[in-house]
Amino acid sequence: MYVYYSVAVITVMVGFQSCEKSEPKAKEPVFSITAHPVQTLSYLFGSVSGSLTVEATVEGGNAAISYQWYENSSNSNSGGTLISGASSNSYTLPSGLTAGSYYYFCEVRATGFTSLRSQVTTVTVSLPTPSSPLSVSISGNISHTVYQSGTLGSVTFNRFPASFEEWKQAREIIGIEPHGAVALQVMASELYRRDRAAGTNCMRQAVVNSQYDPRIRRLNELFGATGSYARPYQMAAYLKGASWDNGYNPTKPYTIEMRVATGKTYENSTDFQATVIHLEIKSNGHETNNGWQPFAVLKTQKPNEPGENGKFFIVSEGSSIYLNCREISFTVPFNGLD
Q: Would you say domain 30-126 falls under CATH 1.10.150.120?
């Protein structure tokens, strides 16, 4: 007897994959901002200093990097207004910033890459808190209807208003008199130097509508940080005791001296249906007419004009106080105004 065994042969095919060692792929250069400017800064008016800085690199490459700083009207790095000359990685803040909020960012560029924008820095400038309540008084009896050449009047106050609300408080006390309207325009102008928004509100209430735009344009020249027209001490020139050679530093409390114009009588305005009162304000920074600068004020019920329907006097002509006062002495600093 024969026994047969069937043997199954299983063949296993093992495949070998050819693995060739490849060279590592070179990394693409990476462009990035490595240090953003600080997010927030706060200052008191008159003490703004320092700078903003941004750092950027191109890792794995040698592309040239350039910078451009922008300012914006909101907390955003979209849009914005280019700041002329601000083209390094550091930007020095303008020392003359007035009260308010300011927004800055930097756009960083590198050849061959999409530009990058830094985070926004918010700079907040505020006015110092007044150390005492505002105190204002008015003296002198200037007629509202009868021209009396040379009649004197004055307004005395311990400090300038620090807000639109304080300016209105002063108006309640002195705005019902013609020379009070003159002092209120000086106050509004000085407040504009410190706080553009508050000063703008005051000026809209201090002058007839046709005078508003010219006054604001001139204030921007006088209170600009630089330029031959810049006069941060312009309003100090109308305070008793201030003069170019003492740094326009007045005596305290502050006093503004005025008088009825000596060469121009009262007149009637058909446009405003009101009596126009011509006054002069004393300046120690102007030489013409022995320092007396002309003004005109009135009360009107003309629709859409300020003055609360004839309750307060407003200025109808006062461009003379914006004529450049004499340049300050090089040896005595202007210490500012309270």
A: no
Strand 292-298 relative to strand 314-317, pairing: antiparallel
- Nearest residue to 325 via CA among 251, 225, 218, 202: 218
**Which residues of the chain form CATH 2.60.40.10?**
30-126
| Predicted pLDDT at 62 | 85
pTM: 0.84
* 153, 138 contact by CB (below 8 A): yes
HEC profile of the chain: CCCCCCCCCCCCCCCCCCCCCCCCCCCCCEEEEEECCCCEEEEECCCCCCEEECEEEEECCCCCEEEEEEEECCCCCCCCEECCCCCCCEEECCCCCCCEEEEEEEEEEECCCCCEECCCEEEEEECCCCCCCCCEEEECCCCCCCCCCCCEEEEEECCCCCCHHHHHHHHHHHCCCHHHHHHHHHHHHHHHHHCHHHHHHHHHHHECHHHHHHHHHHHHHHCCCCCCCCCCCCHHHHCCCCCHHHCCCCCCCEEEEEEECCCCCCEEECCCCEEEEEEEEECCCCCHHHHEEEEEEECCCCCCCCCCCCCCCEEEECHHHHCCCCCCCCCCCCCCCC
Q: What is the mean pLDDT of each run of 10 residues along the chain (338 residues)?
A: 39 44 70 96 95 94 93 96 96 94 97 95 95 96 97 98 98 98 98 96 97 94 81 96 96 98 96 98 93 96 97 96 93 94
